[in-house]
Amino acid sequence: MVLTKEYRICMPLTVEEYRIGQLYMIARHSLEQSGDGEGVEVVENRECFDEKHGKGQFTEKRIHLSSRLPYWVQSIIPKIFYVTEKAWNFYPFTNTEYTCSFIPRFNISIETKYEDNNGCSENCLGSTPEQLAERITDHLDIAYDEVSAKHYKEEEDPRFFQSKKTHRGPLVDGWRSNYQPIMCSYKLVHASFEVFGLQTKVEDFIHSCVREVLLLGHRQAFAWIDEWIDMSMADVRVYESSLQQQTNSLLQGQSGRPLGGQTESLPERDAPPVSRRISGGGDAGESLSLGGTAPSSPKEPKSPARKGYFSNWF
């Protein structure tokens, strides 16, 4: 049985603001987590279309992370290992799928919807009564739920951070009840690892990692607000493109292998067509397009400083 949880993460932002903040956060964090031949490789980025949601963006990424996995996982996988992320983004709806280059029965799917409320929508992703009965709901508090010690930075702690440009924050206990503006990321996560003897252990491990990544990423999106709040969509996509090139260069240069090719792994499954997969949800899988002038940012990462972000998801 697939373990399904719905995570609800509120932030002191609007859905329209987060469209920019999400792109900035993902691009910056991908670069920070790349180094020593491991990190996030962008394979494909193109426009896509869905009959229900219209024009969107498809991205495919490979997350190289062999040495960051727990020992008991490393013992059953090849030395060179990656997870493939395929995302169909129709903001504020996104659908993202993670598959494994070595274990075909490994799958994580995340349906996301963003709404301008404090997490009070009980079925915004349109689950069936049967799905609702099996669903576990987890409300994450970016200020008062603790991230692991290796991820903690006081300057990124919403209990102490205040934006100089928007004057939002610090967030006090119970802030989600009356703070304005406020939005919520609704994420329905299905984790499946159909391997006898390991299924329950791995699916529980996946969800603990997903929770940590969601908590950390949303904290950072808010804590970095002064770096992206003045950006236009063209600005952030140029920033994203620049960091994407740096990330791919780091992976290729330090691993000594060409990117985009198979290395000691089984053939990957083709992703289903968009029309079969989009069901009113989505994950933080935004993508880029080129154009505009690259903004300068004092917080742009100049060198990778790995903190194990992706190892905590997978």
From TrEMBL:
Listed Pfam families: IP_trans
Source organism: Phaedon cochleariae
Record flagged with keyword Ubl conjugation: no
Database matches in SUPFAM superfamilies: Bet v1-like
Superkingdom of origin organism: Eukaryota
GO MF annotation, one: phosphatidylinositol binding
Domain Phosphatidylinositol transfer protein N-terminal: 3-245
Residue ranges the record marks as coiled coil: none
Protein name: Cytoplasmic phosphatidylinositol transfer protein 1
Gene Ontology cellular component terms for the protein in this record: cytoplasm; nucleus
Keyword Transport found: yes
